[in-house]
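User: Okay, second chain of the day. Same drill as before: sequence in, structure tokens out.
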Amino acid sequence: MITLKTVNPNVTNCDPAGYRDLMEYEDLLQNESDILEEDKEAALEKLEDDELVVISDEAIGELFNSKHCTEIQKVMNEIVKAVILGGHYKDQPLSKILSHLSLESEKLLSEYIINHAKYAS
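Assistant: Same drill. Structure tokens below.
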């Protein structure tokens, strides 16, 4: 929790009352934002390096256990069709396969990965 210091009104200062507190608060917010962005970048690097296979599996499991179950089932079905049937199924672009996921599902996956990646070894 962030607490703001009070300004002594007897001190002559060219800054408006509360200005320094506001600047400190803005700095704290920026630092928090920077830390979150660094965590996100580190998570994405781990994902690119295949270090988050277990976390990714857990994220997919979260979708299976949510109201988005049918969406992820459709994605898995398209992958199975590509593997077993081949042909034009195998030539599908990934974007077509992922089109079965709603934006809410994609957000759920992204947030799960980013929030859990920092705990992955």
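The chain has a mean pLDDT of 83.

User: Thanks, on to the next one.
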